[in-house]
Amino acid sequence: MKLTSKGRYAVMALADLARFDNIHPVSLRDISLRQGISLDYLEQIFSKLRKKEIVQSVRGTQGGYVLNKKAKEIKLTNIFDAVDEKVKTVQCKKESKKGCNGKSAKCLTHNLWDELENHINNFFEEKSLDDLVKNNSERRI
Fold first, then answer.
1. How far is Cα 48 from Cα 70, in angstroms, rounded to an integer?
2. How many CB atoms lie within 10 A of CB 79?
3. Which residue range(s) make up the domain with 109?
4. CA angle at 14 for the pair 16 and 85, rounded to the nearest 5°
């Protein structure tokens, strides 16, 4: 299983946004500088996040992005879905009788990896942006 940089950077950028957007809209340039993420890459990510209505853009000299909902209402799974990130531990389709190895039966360890995928996705479903911001601020005290 591999989580791509797109998914990780989307979560990092939104956690940054959640931390600062209660003051004013946050520019992608500021997020880029604080998080070390390419501005071009952030623009691609935020385009997807805007289409899925996780963020909204604010125009003007003090413009930038704000969250469309409260941070505690945005689950990590919402973010991954918005940027087309899928957490998969097996390559075959769950409903298929064929296994990942192309053979007619699933491998001996298929159920193990399938169960792991369920645990991971449940973990991301339970975690919100607010959890990330709170955990980060508690560690700095």
1. 18
2. 24
3. 5-140
4. 140
Q: Amino acid identity, residue 129?
A: L
Token match 């791509």: residue?
4
Residue type (1 letter), 95: E
pLDDT in tens, 65-92: 999 999 999 999 999 999 998 887 777 6
Amino acid at 37: I
Q: What is the pLDDT of residue 141?
A: 36
Taking each continuous run of H as one helix and of E as one strand, the counts in the chain are 6, 2
Number of domains the chain contains: 1
Q: Which pTM was predicted?
A: 0.83
Write the CATH number for 69: 1.10.10.10
Round to whole Å and give the CA distance between 90 and 47: 29
**CB distance 99 to 92 below 8 Å:** yes
Q: Which residues pair with 57 in a beta bridge?
A: 65
